[in-house]
Structure formats: C-alpha cells, structure tokens
Specification:
The chain is 8% helix and 44% strand.
Length: 332
C-alpha cells in the first residue's frame, strides 16, 4: 500500500513540473525576439533630426542590420530669439528691428536658417511683431517677438508770467490732438487740464512765484473711438515757475543815503536792486542776490533819483518791470 501511495505522489510531481514547463513555453511565443548583435554594422544614409526650441537635434546614421544609431554630431537647440529694440515712434515708415538668434550654448545662429516677417510694423494701435520661422535642415521652430509703435513724446517749452503758464511744443507725426496734464506733487497724480489741436496752450489764473509741473501727450483716436497716447514717465513733465510779483518799494532819504524797503514777495529766492538812469534810460545794477527786504544806497547824487527792485524766483527769472513801478527819491 505504501508503494502505491509513493508512486502516485511521484506521478503528480512529474505532471506539475511538466505543466509548468509547458505554460512557460507557451507564454514565450508572445515575447519579441531579442536581436542578435551585429558581427559588423552596416550603416545607411546620413539623417538629420533638426533642433528645436531648447531641444537639441542630431546628425546620425542607423545600422541596417540591428538598427543601432551612430551620432555624427549634435545640433544645439535654439536658446534665445531677441529684437534689437522693442519701442519705436511712429514716423510713417516701416520699423524692422534686427533679429538675433542664439543656441543653448550662446552661439549665434545665422540668418540663413530662418525667415523674418514683420506684421503691422508701420502703424500705431495694432499688435506689432516679428514672425520668425526656422525651416532649414538643421532647425525647425517658430517664434513671435512683439514690439510697440507709439506716437512720439512732444518736446515742450515753457514761458511764464506772474499769473499764467504758456506751453508750446513741436508737431508730432500722426497726432490728431494733444492732452495737457498738471502734476500734483502731493498726490503724485496727473490731472487733465485740457485737450487741444493746437501746438500751444496757456493755463491762466496761477499763483505768482509758484512751481508747477505739466505734461503734454500726443494722441489720436481710431475708427473704433479708441485713444492711443504717447508714452510718458515723471521725467517727461516740464517745470514751470511763475514770476514773482513786482515788489512795492518805498524810498526813504536820510542825507545822501536812500533806504529802499519792501514787503516779502511770495516765491522770491532773492532780490536785485537797480538805479535807473533817466538820461540813458538804462538800469544799472547796484546789488544782486539780496535776501533781505531792505537796502540802503549810500552817497547818492543830489536831485531826483529812481530805483527798481526785482524779485527772482527759484528758476532765476525776475519779476516784470517798467518805469511805472520805479521808486522816487529826492536827495537835497
């Protein structure tokens, strides 16, 4: 009985092992065959895989027998595409900034490998860009590099009186209108003053001896009623210092000396005192850079003498004057 049981167990073990072997053999039919190494490679024609944006390309050959690749050279990928300038002013002509292309190693890629097409590069108010296409054997990619065309900044000159600021500027190509702003130094904001088609504008009713800042921007309106204004920074506004009011001078005679006195003038940085020569009708300077509000002129000639005091603002401009405001002093 024991012999029968042992024989049965042996048969079962053989069958299990045989079944496992058959299963593994059957599964092996679905596994692709492992290529055998070549005794000698036979490489075919040379192929180029072009480089792209940040991706290297290569020049290689492939073995006809085993498919192994032999890389002959690496083509560095495209690293950067830049324009020589990105800001232009409208002048009625086409703007064509130079394109510079470098690979990932920093080497310049020649223009023979790409073409450049400029879009809307003659107008203001549209999306303006250079379209760069790489379509050579070594490179394959496309880029858009944007730049702007705006109206030029007006060149503004200033002239002031004691109560007004006159602004004048040159004509800007393509401009339909000009907008004037006053800069508030406290809020650091620009407040619109006026729009004009003219090349000048006068702001009235200003305080004497006071510093103001103004900005002029050129602009035009397209068919969709969109406004396009010239760019600006705080460096573009102009400084305007109104003239000081003329000092009201009182002359007091003491012997041969004449003391001139006046009230403090708003915005005055200093004063200048003149004597007026009736014969020559000229003003002769006596003292300059005076900070005080009085001055004594000594050893004056007998007879009637005339004097003038002018207040100068921080910009170095003097108050207006004429013979009607002269101070009269009679020396006996």
């Amino acid at each position: 009985m024991k012999k029968i049981i042992c024989s049965a167990i042996s048969v079962l073990l053989v069958l299990c092992l045989f079944g496992t072997t058959l299963s593994a053999f059957a599964e092996g039919w679905d596994t692709p065959p492992v290529p055998f190494p070549c005794d000698e490679h036979v490489f075919g024609q040379t192929t180029t895989e072009p480089a792209g944006a940040g991706k290297n390309g290569k020049v290689y050959q492939k073995c006809k027998n085993c498919g192994e690749e032999k890389v002959l050279s690496v083509i560095p990928g495209i690293g950067s595409v830049t324009l020589s300038a990105t800001q232009f002013y409208y002048n009625g002509k086409a703007h064509t900034p130079t394109v510079t292309v470098k690979d990932v190693k920093g080497n310049v890629i020649g223009a023979s490998h790409y073409t450049v097409t400029y879009v809307n590069n003659k107008v203001v108010g549209k999306k303006t860009y250079a379209h760069i296409v790489f379509d050579s054997e070594k490179y394959s990619a496309a880029y858009n590099r944007y730049f702007t065309i705006s109206l030029a900044k007006p060149v503004v000159s200033v002239k002031t009186s004691a109560a007004a600021v006159a602004l004048r500027w040159q004509k800007v190509a393509g401009a339909q209108y000009y907008r004037i702003y006053q800069y508030n130094t406290s809020t650091k904001k620009y407040v619109r003053v006026a729009n004009t088609k003219n090349l000048s504008y006068t702001i009235k009713n200003k305080a004497a001896g006071t510093t103001y800042y103004y900005l002029v921007r050129a602009y035009f309106v397209n068919a969709n009623k969109q406004e396009f204004l010239s760019p600006y920074t705080v460096k573009d506004h102009v400084k305007a210092v109104t003239l000081c009011k003329a000092p009201a001078v009182k002359a007091t005679v003491s012997g041969k000396n004449v003391t001139l006195s006046w009230g403090k003038v708003t915005g005055a940085a200093y004063y200048r005192v003149f004597r007026y020569d009736v014969k020559t009708q000229k003003y002769i300077g006596i003292v300059n850079g005076l900070k005080a509000t009085s001055y004594t002129v000594k050893n004056q000639a007998k007879g009637t003498n005339y004097y003038l005091v002018r207040a100068f603002n921080v910009a170095g401009a003097g108050s207006a004057y004429n013979t009607k405001i002269l101070a009269k002093a009679i020396v006996k």
